[in-house]
Amino acid sequence: MTEMRMAKTTVLFVDAVNGGTARLLPKEGTAFDFPLRFLPEGIREGACIKFTAALQDNKERRSKTDDLLLSLDNKE
After folding, report:
1. Which tens digit of pLDDT belongs to each residue from 53-62?
2. CATH number of the domain enclosing 28
3. pTM for the whole structure
4. Total of domains in the chain
């Protein structure tokens, strides 16, 4: 799987900022609250942000998981 297929980007509108969260509105779908600590400093109501989510390919973690699954299979 290519890196591009492992990531998705969308634009979100900042509807409100309250306490430690921002209420984000996607172009399509339902609004949701998101922790401010993960957003750019100085974010405020009315701003638009580009949001990208990507899968992290961690070969070491995957290897440990495979080893654990193999050991569980061997116990049966």
Report:
1. 988 777 767 7
2. 2.40.50
3. 0.66
4. 1
Reply yes or no on whether the pLDDT at 15 is more than 90.
yes
Give yes or no for residue 74 having a pLDDT over 80: no
Judged on CB neighbours under 10 Å (0-12, 13-18, 19+), 64 is exposed
C-alpha 23/C-alpha 43 separation (Å) is: 11
Local structure of 8: helix, strand or coil: strand
Residue 12, classified by CB atoms within 10 Å of its CB into exposed (0-12), middle (13-18) or buried (19+), is buried
| Residue 68, domain extent | 4-75
The residue to which tokens 């299979």 are assigned: 73
Spatial separation of the C-alpha atoms in residues 36 and 59, rounded to whole Å: 30
The residue type of 63 is S
